[in-house]
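Researcher: Next sequence.
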Amino acid sequence: MTPPPTILLISLNLEPYFDELYTPQIDLLTKHATLQRTQTTDATLRTLTSPTPPHAVLLTDAALTQQKHVDTWDAVLQYVRNGGTAICMGHFTSFIKPPRFVPFFSRAGLAWDMEEYMRTTVCLQRRNCPDRYWGPVPDRYSQKAVFLKNVDPGDVWYRTGAESVRGMDGAAVALARVGEGRLGYIGDVNAEVDSGRVLVALCGL
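Model: Next structure:
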């Protein structure tokens, strides 16, 4: 029997209430994968470079946006360029400082930056989402999020639409090709259950 894939949670600045807040999303992930967490740079680097690297990596906080962790971020990017998937989610969007957006994502070759922080309805961009996920993920849902700008239209999974706050056209969920792998982003700051379903899809599960 083939063992389930491993999802690595990189949590160098783990908040004590993370697991409770994100229980619905964690429970969804554990139906598809084995979860592993690292809270130190050494453990993270060992896991990323192991003979059997994880199926996907979740950046659950904003630690890797700090200059002191740039080597770890570079290791994550190398893992992605080699074919891995990394998703910025959870407390990443809650704690990242706006001036760090551009330098952080530019190391991945992306021009992503912070657009707005608000609650509004976001809509699935079906042309960018594999059709096998059209059932599991919602067509639209309300999300309080840190939205992105400067995202290639082909990389946007959820964005504002006709039902959204007017005057703002940002990406709430994105997934971009970086090398042979993918780098994703979920702007949700409130751990919506629907965002958990989206996270499972972004991880390719």
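Model: Helices lie at 18-21, 23-30, 41-48, 70-81, 91-95, 101-106, 193-202. Residues 2 and 60 are 27 Å apart (CA to CA).
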